Amino acid sequence: MSEFENLLNKLLEQKPEFTRPDIESRIKEKKEKIGAGYLTDQGALFLIASDLGISLTEPLKVEMGLKDLYVGAKEISLETRVLNMSPAKQYSRKDGSPFFLRTMTVYDGDSTASVKLWDEKANLPGIEDLKPGDLIKILKAYVKSDLDGSPTINVGSGSNIETSATESKIPSIESITKDVSSVKENEKNLVVSGTVDGLISGMEFTNSRGQPGKALRMRLKGTDGNTTRVVLWGKDESSIPKVIVPGAKARLLGVRTKTGNQGLEIHGSEATIVEIEGKEAEPIVLRMISRSQNDSGSTNLLCVDNKKNLFNIKDLAGATSEFMLGDVLECIPSKAYGNSVTIDSDSLVRKIEDDGTIPSQSDLRTKISDVKVGSDYCIEAIVLKKPERREVQTKTGESISLSEMYVEDDSGPIWIKGWRNQARLLDKCSLGEILSITGVTARAGLEDKTELFLTQFSIISKKN
Fold first, then answer.
1. What's the pLDDT tens digit per position in 86-140?
2. Distance of CA 256 to CAs 67, 106, 444, Å?
3. In this structure, are strands 190-196 and 263-268 parallel, antiparallel, or unpaired?
4. Using one digit for the tens of pLDDT, what is the confidence trace for 349-403?
5. The whole model's pTM is what?
6. Which residues of 90-113 are buried (b: 16+ CB within 10 A; e: fewer)?
7. What does CATH list as the number for 284-352?
8. Could you tell me which residues come within 8 angstroms of residue 128 by beta carbon, excluding any fewer than 6 positions away?
9. CATH of the domain spanning 365-462, picked from 2.40.50.140, 3.40.80.10, 1.10.3720.10, 3.40.50.300
């Protein structure tokens, strides 16, 4: 709506005895009296309002961009796009009365901002149907300071949100999406893309207030081949597909970056939107090449398919307890995140005949010179430097065990490292021993040199 229309409507509200044609006629008369070339319709409206004894100096609304927000602004109106949105939650005021609150992140061509929708505005009709990139108008909102001091748009009883179908210069979600390899420290309200790399896992914890919490952990690989750790606070596995193919594309809407114990990390919240390619569960045929028990009592299996892809399998139901190393099994898992597979009571597992198309463990050996960052391997090597155990202090004060061992084969040397429980696997290794090391992950280490890291699925056996 134009400023002229706003002013005209305000005049008619204050002088209901006049109609729109009455005012338009007066505008024409005023312009004819003053003379052509000196007065616009809007200017004439101000003179008419003065004649009627009313003031139009206070605008109906203040239009601004997100970069212009300031704490204390009132009755602002903006056109913007949705970045993400959290579910509506019910809270209690000090007097015990309930209220609803929903948070939303919006963006325009210059900046981003947080929006809080209070009480009935948290459940506006159609609010749940808004999608990332949708164009909206925020009307008559007010701005207050958030906990971190940044200005936050508040939508209360006198405010509203409307969808907009007009053309806009505000960029689309696709155009503001960054590859994970290009993010920098201390950025916020990002849209980040990459490919899922390895295991996706959930965790539960108790926060500093004694309340239970949850989070989803994963790694994203960028176009440069490097991976970045991701923690999505308030999310669990219900946020992602049950079956995610290896190398699936992913996009996270509404995340920030920070420096953690292992370098730059991406952190999200319950408002973060998680988009990951998924599909229906299909049978996979694998050969079991190692088995171990983890601390929780479930069974970890390392398996391989006919293309020499390694799979990390967690058997929570004991479905593979009768299988032997080297057996070929067919499995329809309950969950599969890339090469990380979960077998539980809802999964189907059976032993099938070995037709020789799936390689055995002896066929999986990779020369150290062929190891590339981002993949899992099985190697055979001689120990050149016996393992050394040390404690590493994190920024939070936690002490973590790290064991390091230097090995080589006839193609070259490499460091093998184990953190926490995996450090114990190296303790029994000695100088000069030839080892078969199954299921290690190649990552970029110090000075960007490739290093091998043990996982909970790794097995080390001695060849001599």
1. 989 898 888 888 999 999 999 998 889 999 999 999 998 889 889 999 999 999 8
2. 19, 14, 23
3. unpaired
4. 999 998 889 988 888 888 999 998 878 889 999 999 989 998 887 666 778 889 9
5. 0.65
6. eeeeeeeeeeeebbbbbbbeeebb
7. 2.40.50.140
8. none
9. 2.40.50.140
